[in-house]
Design brief:
The complex is a heterotrimer of chains A (110), B (544) and C (141).
Chain A (H helix, E strand, L loop, with lengths): L11 E8 L6 E4 L4 E2 L12 H10 L4 E11 L2 E4 L2 H8 L16 H5 L1
Antiparallel strand pairs in A: 1-2, 1-4, 2-3, 4-5
Chain B lengths: L5 H22 L5 H9 L3 E3 L4 E5 L5 E3 H14 L3 E4 L5 E6 L4 H9 L17 E2 L14 H11 L14 E4 L13 E7 L5 E7 L12 E7 L3 H15 L10 H8 L1 H16 L7 H9 L19 H10 E3 L5 E6 L10 E3 H14 L3 E4 L5 E7 L3 H10 L14 E2 L14 H10 L3 H7 L4 E4 L13 E8 L2 E8 L11 E2 L6 H18 L6 H8 L2 H8 L1
Chain C lengths: L4 E2 L11 E2 H6 L5 E4 L17 E6 L6 H11 L5 E6 L6 H6 L4 E4 L5 H9 L15 H6 L1
Parallel strand pairs in C: 2-3, 3-4, 4-5, 5-6
Antiparallel strand pairs in C: 1-6
Classes of the chains: A alpha+beta (110), B alpha+beta (544), C alpha/beta (141).
Amino acid sequence: MGGGCGSFRGACVKILTGNDLKTGDVIWWTGNGWSRHVAEAVDVGEHGEAIAAAEEGARRVNVPYVISAEQGPDGPRPAHIKDRIRALGPTVRPDLSIRPADPNAGNWVI
Amino acid sequence: MYRYDEYDQQIVDTRVEEFRDQVNRRLAGEMTEDQFKPLRLMNGLYLQLHAYMLRVAVPYGVLSSRQMRMLAHVARKYDKGYGHFTTRQNIQYNWIKLADAPDILAELATVQMHAIQTSGNCIRNISSDQYAGAAADEVGDPRPYAELLRQWSTFHPEFTYLPRKFKIAVIGSEDDRAAIQLHDIGLQLRRNEEGTLGFRVYVGGGMGRTPMIAPVIRDFVPVEDYVSYLEACLRVYNRYGRRDNIYKARIKILVHEIGADEYRRQVEEEFLHVKQLGIDPPAAELERIAGFFADPAFEDGLADDVALDDPEFAAWVDQNTHAHKKPGYIIVNISLKPVDGIPGDASAEQIDIVADLAERYSFDEVRVTHAQNLVLPHVKKADLKTLWQQLKAAGLASANLDLVTDIIACPGLDYCSLANARSIPLAQDITRRFADPARQKDLGELKIKISGCINACGHHHAGHIGILGVDRKGEENYQLLLGGSGAEDASLAKIIGPGFTETGVVDALEKAIETYRTLRTPGERFLDTYRRVGIQPFKEAVYG
Amino acid sequence: MVESLRFRDDTPPDEPAVTLDSFLDQSNASAVRIEPGEDVRSLLPLIERLRLVEVDFPTFRDGRGYSAARILREAGYTGELRATGDVLVDQLPHMRRVGFDSFHPRTPLDGAAVERALGRYDYVYQAAADSRPPVWKLRHG
């Protein structure tokens, strides 16, 4: 296991994600609500499933699921590239990214 | 092209209201996602990586300029200004909101378009030859038969909950430009010895996890029986297709497991029964539909030559045009594969431009190809130069049809929640490496097809060179396959060896192509050389 | 909320439906229950005895029951044809078209939604087991 979760050597966390039911936007659980920005996602520890069930029942999220992430200086970085692409946007259309002006966004995904 | 009558329009309009009702019930919590999902899929609405994705049907790949303008409008108003043309001749929008979906479908209905059955375990869009009604090698135009099947399959009460998706393709020539042998059912219009018109019926082709080339189940079904015959084929599948394992649920698995002979026997038995039920539409209905596909008002005696003094124009004419059945006319292919572009994507502006060009130069008609390009089917040779100049100004004049940079690529991990790896950056890499037009021309016909996962939406099994993206211990990895073909000489590509990184697979591909250049005899395409020398020389070159 | 639906005028049969195997064994049963994988054609020689056929849908995604129903109607079965199990409002129109005339859904249905669903489409494209004319018949008579 060593020191850290992934290539950036941050702590391993569990974060909760899903889609907004009405808009389809990718959203992340912040502890008291849902945000489009993965940087605001909190570590849900062992409570992810319970929170997911409650939030989905209330229709505040659609198809939620828990993922592993690595805590970094800019917030959690999802362990799997698929969720990093969900977090940011298609790598081939940086203009459509959620942070189009960020030149480091590509490195963060890949 | 086909025009809805009041019945067609009512059905589509009613469907919009039904879907609006279903969406409202979902948003109000009266339906769970589990209950709603099959219903929204039957209206082509997926929940994808970034948002909902809507797949709009383009029946057998045919569009009017008015419909094209609506597609551009949808891209602008409800999406992020672009659409993606797919390997089943449809169009996809990637950034749709559920709350907007009913309104989008309502707008589409005003131009006789819909998203019915473009997903789900039902009969999907009927695909066809992009040169239908224009090419000289047709026995007959397949589109009326495709339209009849579209109606027959729409909301078919018995076949709405099949074991899995069901894809049908119809062509009218010996040359297969629609990959019919890689469909669940492929229909080839032909005449028997007596000169009667009918279909050769292929059943059980497909790609995905277990690619298969369809066997011929019936060499000849007369036109007046083909609907009953298809009912029989579908009923046997609905009753006996596997439902225990989603990866074994396509009809190709059933045909393979019980054998083509047994499947044929069961279909013939069912057909004898179904034939007596009177479900075949009368000949008058086919005639009515065929009337919409009569030739446009071609002019006679037009100039049949084209001035080719401009070398860039000449290269485009040479590569991207195809002979038309009428002297003085020509078929034009519009490449949606510019070097470094996203294969199959078109901006709203480009879609509008193509609509204008279709209206002005192609009797108002456009086609979508399963290779993710567009076609203007009926262009006067006299208009070719000015058309090309306008395409060029819009970034739509890449002279690369069927060349190494005319890559088929699924949306891949950049867009699709099923994907294991990204496919688009790989396509862009390859096109950049092979950008030089002289090099492309030298290599000749070379069909590269890239899929981001085993579901094979990029048709990699049918690529002269196929690439499959996989997940290898959490990292993107790519397998290289050689020797596939989706044409009438159908074959399945073979994997060459262990996988590569993204840069690695482009290097490997380049080595394979160099091997072809070294070994080829004059006139041989990559596929021909591969078939002649086998996989060994390529393996050695790539793995050393 | 509606627990069951019936579109017949005759008296509902009161015999419990037996399994297909039992039915084929017993000479006096008149009600049978079909599971998705069972071949409904084995009933055809005994169709005169039948007053009720129940076709179960353990999950609404399993569409085998639609073929079972239509095969029975095509063979001339005029008794009650009942869909049971995971039957939602959205499946009712297709189920009616393949010949079902009664429904015992696992979860009660909203009566208003049922009426809306069944009355929604004025036209159908293809011939099925019901009497609705396909559009091509309306076009050409």
